[in-house]
Design goal:
It contains two helices and eight strands, in the order E-H-E-E-E-E-H-E-E-E. By secondary structure, the chain is mostly beta strands.
C-alpha cells in the first residue's frame, strides 16, 4: 500500500468519461441511434456533446471533437504503462468524482504519485490530473454544490 489514509477525501463515484472523436455528429448518431444513449446536451460549434444511458445508470460520456494533431502525446511514465487509444492516437481519460479535491490531491501527493496537472478551479468545479501506478491517466473532479455521501 502506498500511503495510510489521513483524511476523509474519498473517490465517491464517476463524474463522466471523455472520448475524443474525429466527427462529433457521426459519433452522436452512433451513440444515440445505434447504442441507444440519449443526448443530454450538445454544442456542435464548440465540438462537445454529452450522452447518457436512458435509464440513468453509470457515468455519462462526453464526446469531444478533436483532431489527432491537437491531442497531446502522452509519454509513458512507468515501464509497463499502456493507454487505450484509437487508430488516430486519441487517448481516453477517466474522470473520478471526489468530495474534497484539495484533500485528495494532498493524499495522492504524499503517496508519491506522479501528478500531471495541479488543482484548477472554476465557478462550478475543480480538477487535477495524475497517473495511477500503471500509468493510466486520471482526472479527479469536485463539483461545487454537489452533496455526496
Amino acid at each position: 500500500m502506498l500511503s495510510k489514509k489521513t483524511n476523509n477525501a474519498d473517490v465517491n463515484g464517476y463524474c463522466c468519461m471523455r472520448f475524443p472523436v474525429s466527427d462529433l455528429k457521426k459519433s452522436v448518431d452512433f451513440y444515440c441511434d445505434v447504442l441507444g444513449y440519449k443526448l443530454n446536451s450538445a454544442d456542435f460549434q464548440f465540438g462537445e456533446a454529452h450522452v447518457a444511458l436512458k435509464n440513468g445508470n453509470g457515468p455519462g460520456i462526453f464526446l469531444m471533437e478533436t483532431k489527432p494533431e491537437d491531442v497531446t502525446q502522452l509519454k509513458f511514465v512507468f515501464p509497463r504503462s499502456f493507454f487505450i487509444t484509437s487508430s488516430t492516437g486519441h487517448v481516453t481519460m477517466v474522470e473520478l468524482l471526489t468530495n474534497d479535491l484539495l484533500a485528495l490531491h494532498e493524499r495522492i501527493k504524499q503517496a508519491g504519485v506522479h501528478i500531471d496537472t495541479e488543482p484548477v478551479f472554476s465557478n462550478d468545479f475543480g480538477y487535477f490530473t495524475f497517473y495511477d501506478p500503471d500509468g493510466h491517466y486520471i482526472r479527479a473532479v469536485e463539483e461545487r454544490g454537489v452533496i455526496s455521501n
